[in-house]
Structure of Thiosulfate reductase cytochrome b subunit:
Amino acid sequence: MQDSSSPTPAEAKTGAAEHTTPKPPKTQPAQKTFLNRTGRQWAVQGGIGVVAIIVVAAVAVLLTRWLLDTETVAGFVERYPGQYSQPEAPGGYPWWLNWAHFFNAFLMVLVIKTGIQIRTEARPAAYWTPKWNKKRKISLTIWLHNALDLLWVLNGVIFVVLLLATGYWQRVVPTSWEIFPNALSAGLQYVSLDWPTVGEWAHYNSLQELAYFTTIFIAAPLAILTGLRMSGLWPANNQALNKLFPVELARAVHFPVMIYFTVFILVHLILVFATDALANLNQIYTGDETQNWTGFWLFALSLAVIVAGAFLARALFVAPIASLFGRVGR
Ligand code: HEM
């Protein structure tokens, strides 16, 4: 192989190499890519994806409408209208539910943001060492994630205790096997775009109730348990416990649970806005069911608070708080 700086035989003959600097080989200008795709590829493949989704959705809507018109399915929906009767469940939205729901949304956005940051940051801005264990050192992002987790768990425990104490739990915990055929019926009606309307505003339809139950009583405990396993609170020296609940299992479950929460929040918000938005926002922010803009403006304010929280969740502002509980450094 010839060294690129040494003259070729022809150059050696003419002495050309002494007067001309070797030209670098011609290369294409580097294309900017995101997740291994160029902007053009994203546009083409994204466009095909969107068209495919629209076609599949349209076929699903038409097929479900046709199904709902058949005698069997129409009879099924008549028998299971999408919600079962819950005579004991209290109605309305008490103030504690309004506040717990807001704190939950605020903390959840920050928990998801810092969770994604932990997975993606190559070099943390700073590290934190607890006062009580000088050998343990975690990134400031993990510290913030865990601090937010503790507040989120505290808020969640207060919420669940109040749910149980006031009877409101009956709205979000299935109390009859009829929830399953009713959820299927509600699902069919959602897909047909002929959406189930809630007869009494205190009652959720069965699919909604199952989603709330899964979020509060399955996803949240799973997030807590798997997070605890990966945290400094876990008794790492207890071999029996470690074997019973391997850290790899915790890691494998923690991330999909975060995906679940993200999808839940997106669908939840779409449905809040697609079904009588003003009344929904009034219920969850003021506890009132009237049709005015108060709930909407409180929602806008709460979004501003969430965005401000997300902005402040950076080392500059977090370090002074974290240093109250340990040493912050590099
Ligand atoms: C700012 C964003 C949010 C808005 C505007 C919002 C809105 C609402 C509304 C309007 C309801 C009442 C539903 C109805 O009457 O049909 C509700 C209930 C509920 N939301 Fe949200 N939500 C938000 C974020 C979240 C988040 C992040 C979670 C949890 C991951 C969540 C979990 C729930 C649960 C569990 C209920 C049922 C509460 C009960 O009745 O006990 N929400 N939300």
Remarks:
- The pocket of protoporphyrin IX containing FE is lined by residues 97, 101, 104-105, 108, 168, 171-172, 212, 215-216, 261, 264-265, 268-269, 272, 280-281, 283-284, 299, 302 (CB under 6 Å).
- The two ends are 47 Å apart (CA to CA).
